[in-house]
Amino acid sequence: MADQAQKDAVRHPWFARFYARCSVRAEPAMGPVRRELLTGLSGRVLEVGAGNGLNFAYYPPTVSEVVAIEPERELRALAVEAARRADVPVDVAPGAAEALPVKSEAFDAVVLCIVLCSVRDVDRSLAEVRRVLRPGGQVRFFEHGLAPGRGMRRVQGALDRTVWPRLFGGCHVGRDAVAALRRAGFETDGHRDLLLPERGPRMPTSYCVLGTARRPRDDGAAPLAPEG
Ligand SMILES: C[S@@+](CC[C@H](N)C(=O)[O-])C[C@H]1O[C@@H](n2cnc3c(N)ncnc32)[C@H](O)[C@@H]1O
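^ Those are the sequences you sent over. The predicted structure of the assembly is below.
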């Protein structure tokens, strides 16, 4: 029973079915972003909130193993299928970002792809990411988030306080991934802002950031996640 509760830490069956369909339709735009996100990675990689596993096809052969954590049962089942088709070994497991079921300092890189928008506790999740990365290890991130303009920020805030998280599996449109990574003690190695879709009307989810951050090399003891 406790095991089942752990496996279902996140349960969004409607969103899971919606995301499984619309993420595949978005691949012509998202595929190149996923490729850029993962280019140059090597060694052991942890992917947090892997969804239906669309990133798996883009891991380069220099990656020796991917451990992919996905809390939502239906998305996890799709990720298991995607793992079978992947060119690198991918092990899909249940779990949540706020309490990653892996050892400290066990990974060379952690991948966060449209997931900080959805976790319940961003600071706790990033403290966990820092714990499981080796000192000097990288975070590769692609997230949608806070718009630059005040008008759209107001819209994002209103959506986040009302319907958006309920409709879209806990997603928030107005989070700031780069600020959260810095707050969690990561050194940001560079990032770029991009709009998705590139053309056409701007949506609350259009404001994206793609980049790399790093656990400091001299970050001795594995930090503990804040109480929550
Ligand atoms: C927008 S989807 C992105 C999926 C995938 N990363 C991708 O690139 O297509 C957000 C994902 O975060 C997962 N998620 C939600 N809450 C989470 C949590 N607390 N810990 C880890 N993953 C979570 C969802 O189940 C979903 O798979």
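Residues 10, 19, 23, 48-51, 54-55, 70-72, 75, 96-98, 113-115, 118-120, 169-170 surround S-adenosylmethionine (CB under 6 Å). The first helix runs from residue 2 to 7.

Shout if you want it in another format.
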